[in-house]
Amino acid sequence: MKRFASVSALVLLAATPLLAQPVDQSEATIGPDYTPVPELAIPHGNIIGFAMESTDSKIYPGIARIDNETMARRDAWGNRLAAPLEGNARAQAYSRRVTVYVPPLQQPLGRGAMRPALPFMVVQDGSSYVARMVPVLDSLIAQKRIPAIAVIFVNSGGSDAQNSQRGLEYDAMDGKYAEFIETEVLPRAAREANITFTTDRAGRATAGCSSGAAAALSMAWYHPEWYSRVLSYSGTFVNQASPQVAATPRGAWEYHASLIPNSPKKPFRIWMQVGEKDLHFEDPEQSWHNWPMANQRMAAALKAKGYDYRYVFSRGAAHCDARVMAQTFPESIEWTWKGYPR
């Protein structure tokens, strides 16, 4: 009975002209005119997806570990020891998913007009970030906090770490992955989405988490003529190279230990984050495998060399922590594109 009495009272209130204002904060009267909230007016970008097969790649025909003994090889400090690809990996086909975000038009195009070449960002392990990043991109572009960028979300060829296709792409200390993106992924993405990507390095960014972040840095480090903006979450700046090479014996640990301090300053800016409880956060330095330590030293090396960087240490956060990304994506993406024309 109380429930029906309550409903009747509300109906009477709504029908009584003399009570146009709410009696208290628990009641409200709206209308009769209604306007959609501004959030619903935000233009949305388009999403185009396609697959790339290993059989179509001249750079990455596809590999996989023969067994897990390779992953079990460790030194006295528990550090993974990279094994040569020869004899420890076999050929294996893959199919990788690529998703292209095309930003909404800021101005209507005239008849016969072509859309200008777009600035863009490449995101490693792409499928993991489409749903989380696209609403942020729509919002930031609508607010003119970032330029109208395209984003190419690229999956790896699969598996993880040494002697895997993902390890070969992301953890290798060379420019091969950037060359794969430049010569195979971008041309295909441009065709599929019917757009053009800028060749201006100032309008090219790359992003990722974990080994995807190490790959992002390697793209800008080994090919600074292509990339000038890097976004890194929980970067794998540790000894996980696959294959291991003499020039960088500790893999991506060498970025902060030797490469950044001992090389001329490269023309890129970088936003980076790591969690307090990130991977191997209790491991000693000699393991070359402590994520928080590696990222802290990256920040120190970048600062000492005069790089344009931002370093975010996340208390209580784990590896590639979704809570951190949910809070920081607007800041990190906006900072990454700072200085580029809107």
Would you summarize the structure shown here?
By secondary structure, the protein is α/β, with parallel strands linked by helices. The protein contains nine helices and ten strands.
Describe it for me?
The protein is globular. It has one domain (53-106, 116-336): Rossmann fold (3-Layer(aba) Sandwich). Mean pLDDT is 88; it is low at 1-19. The strands form two sheets. Strands 1-4-6-5-7-8-9-10 form an eight-stranded mixed β-sheet, with helices on both faces. The chain is an alpha/beta fold. Helix 3 (130-142) runs parallel beside helix 9 and helix 7 runs parallel beside helix 8. It has helices spanning 2-15, 69-72, 130-142, 165-170, 176-193, 211-222, 253-262, 291-305, 322-336, and strands at residues 46-53, 63-65, 89-91, 95-102, 120-124, 150-154, 204-209, 229-233, 269-275, 308-314. It starts with a helix and ends in a 6-residue tail after the last helix.
Global outline: globular
Number of helices: 9
Return Rg in Å. Answer: 25 Å
Straight-line distance between termini: 60 Å
CATH topology: Rossmann fold
Fraction in beta strands: 15-25%
Overall CATH class: Alpha Beta
Residue stretches low in confidence (pLDDT < 50, at least 5 long) are 1-19
Overall average pLDDT: 88
Number of strands: 10
* Topology pattern, helix = H, strand = E: HEEHEEEHEHHEHEHEHEH
- Full CATH superfamily name: Alpha/Beta hydrolase fold, catalytic domain
